[in-house]
Amino acid sequence: xxxxxxxxxxxxxxxxxxLAALLRQNPRFHADMSGPLAGLFTSLLGDMSERNEFSxxxxxxxxxRVLRGLFENFYADASADVVFDTNRGWCVRMPALATLFPQxxxxxxxxxxxxxxxxxxxxxxQNAFQPSAIFNYSPGGTVYTRANGIAGSDGLLGFAYDxxxxxxxxxxxxxxxxxxxxxxxxQPAKALAAIYDFIGEPTYPHNVDQVxxxxxxxxxxAGTPGLHAVRPKVEARERESIxxxxxxxxxxxxxxWRDPGLNPRGVRIV
Length: 270
Fold this sequence. Notes:
The structure is a single chain. The protein has one domain: Rossmann fold (3-Layer(aba) Sandwich). The chain is globular. Helix 2 (37-47) runs antiparallel to helix 3 (60-74). The protein is built from eleven helices and six strands. A six-stranded parallel β-sheet has the order 2-3-1-4-5-6, with helices on both faces. The chain has helices at residues 16-23, 37-47, 60-74, 94-100, 113-126, 143-151, 156-168, 181-186, 188-199, 216-221, 245-250; strands at 4-10, 29-31, 82-86, 106-110, 176-180, 268-269.
C-alpha cells in the first residue's frame, strides 16, 4: 500500500501527462494520465446522499471510510511509496482531500489560455477524418464553435478553469501549487525541484532527454490520436498560432496566476 498520495490537476493541454511521465521515472513514485477515480468519487458521493433510501445507515464516518477505501483499493497493487492521481476534477475536491488525506498536495498544471485553445484546435485539424470525444464525436462546427464549446462552464477548458480558481482562492490554497507549462518545458529541472520541495520528498535525477509514455490505444478510442502524446525530449518549441487573431485575443488575459496582485493566498507558482 502506498504511504502517501498527491494529486495532479489543473487545465487541459497544460503538461499533466508530461509531468506524470517524468515523475514515474522515480521508482518510488506511481503517476499516470487522467484516470477514473475522480468520477468514481463523485458517483459515490451521490449514491451515499439522501437520494439513497438507505442513507440513514450511512453516517459521515462511513462516507469517509468508503471514499478513502476507494483510493486504497484502486491502488492496492501499486508498489510505489508515493502515488499521484491525475484528474482535472480534483481542484473542486480540496476540502474532501484535506480531510481524507491530510498530507496530500494538489499540483495544478496551467498554461497561457489561448495556447490551450490553439492546442485543442491543432489536434482536431491533425485528425481531420476522426471526430473527437472532446466534442462528443461531432464532425461539424468551426474553430469558433469549438472554442466556445470547450470554454463553456461544462466544457473541457471552462470547467477546469473554474475549478482551478475555486482552489486558488479557497481556504485550502496552501495545499495547492501551480506548475506553468512554459516552465515545465523550458526549465524542467526547476519545475521538478519545486515539486519535490512542495511535497517534501527527496529529489531524484530525472532524465528529461529520454521521456517515455504511450497512450496510443486510449487516444485512438477517443478519436484524438496524439491527445496524450509525450515527446522523448523535454524542450520548448516555438510556433505560430493557428487561431484567428480575434479568437486568440479573447483568451489572452485569462491567465490570472501571472498577476502577483491576484494571488492573495500566496499560492506557490513555478
